[in-house]
Write a structure and sequence with these properties.
Elements lengths: L11 E4 L5 H12 L3 E6 L3 H12 L5 E5 L5 H15 L4 E4 L14 H29 L2 E6 L3 H4 L5 H21 L4 E8 L8 H4 L2 H9 L9 H12 L10 E4 L8
Helix pairs in contact: 1-2, 1-9, 3-4, 4-6
Length: 256
């Protein structure tokens, strides 16, 4: 193994939800290592274009593509557009998702369905869309962003925890199914991360400090703390790893 194996020069990566938070941090690091990137977004075109401009400033090719990945047709169009532009897809990072909850007896069917549609179905759609291309190449890296909630559960967010637990099972299933094609499938399971998605929960300084005290490293992660492990799984340094759930949570959930 050589340090150059971490380089991703010339590879093509699609990052769903790539315009902000963890997704943007992943795009930044991928482009630093030489990967060309497709920044998928749903609503914030300005943020997506800013992410693309920054990536291009690192000397790679980058484009933004709007797509609602919870819609199978739009997910297929996203991957098709990426292949049309770059002629291949080497890396798929499934990052798009929402974190909205309620006590079970107050949770609406609409909230449950929306969470499953975006977090779980939105992962299935892009994986299904990209696999035929990766099979043609006989190579590929798929990395899913799951959560500690999918490992231990999360009170008042049972919908979210269920969607993330299902992602973990999906990761392991695809790893076994696609390995013979040279495609590895892994997941990263963050704990608390300071992003726009968690700004309400972490906005109060006392609450943030209380959460940090529950983490052995006594620190809430930044998006960059998650991007590094994700990109490791996108590189040749992880060439013999598949079906792995990489815990990046400061020690808050200790599971093998």
């Amino acid at each position: 193994m050589h340090p150059t194996d971490l380089q991703l020069r010339g590879r093509v990566a699609v990052v769903t939800g790539g315009s902000r938070g963890i997704g943007r941090a992943v795009v930044e690091l991928l482009s630093e290592l030489g990967a060309n990137v497709v920044v998928n977004y749903l609503k914030d075109q300005e943020a997506a274009e800013a992410t693309v401009t920054a990536a291009r400033g690192r000397g790679v090719e980058a484009i933004s593509l709007r797509a609602d990945v919870s819609d199978p047709t739009e997910a297929q169009q996203l991957i098709a557009a990426a292949v049309e532009h770059f002629k291949r897809v080497d890396i798929l990072v499934c990052n798009a998702g929402i974190w909205e909850g309620a006590p079970l007896d107050e949770m609406s069917e609409e909230l449950w369905d929306r969470t499953m549609k975006i977090n779980l179905k939105g992962t299935w759609t892009v994986c299904r869309a990209v696999v035929s291309q990766m099979k043609k190449q006989r190579s590929g890296k798929i990395v899913m962003l799951t959560s500690t909630a999918g490992q231990r559960g999360e009170a008042n967010y049972s919908n979210y925890a269920a969607s993330k637990g299902a992602q973990i099972a999906f990761t392991k299933s695809l790893a076994e199914e696609l390995g013979e094609w040279g495609i590895s499938v892994n997941a990263v399971a963050p704990g608390w991360v300071i992003t726009e998605m968690t700004k309400d929960a972490l906005g109060d300084a006392n609450q943030r400090a209380a959460i940090a005290r529950t983490i052995p490293l006594r620190k809430i992660a930044e998006p960059e703390d998650i991007a590094g492990p994700v990109v490791f799984l996108c590189s040749d340094w992880s060439r013999h790893i598949t079906g792995e759930i990489l815990n990046v949570n400061g020690g808050s959930v200790l599971c093998g």
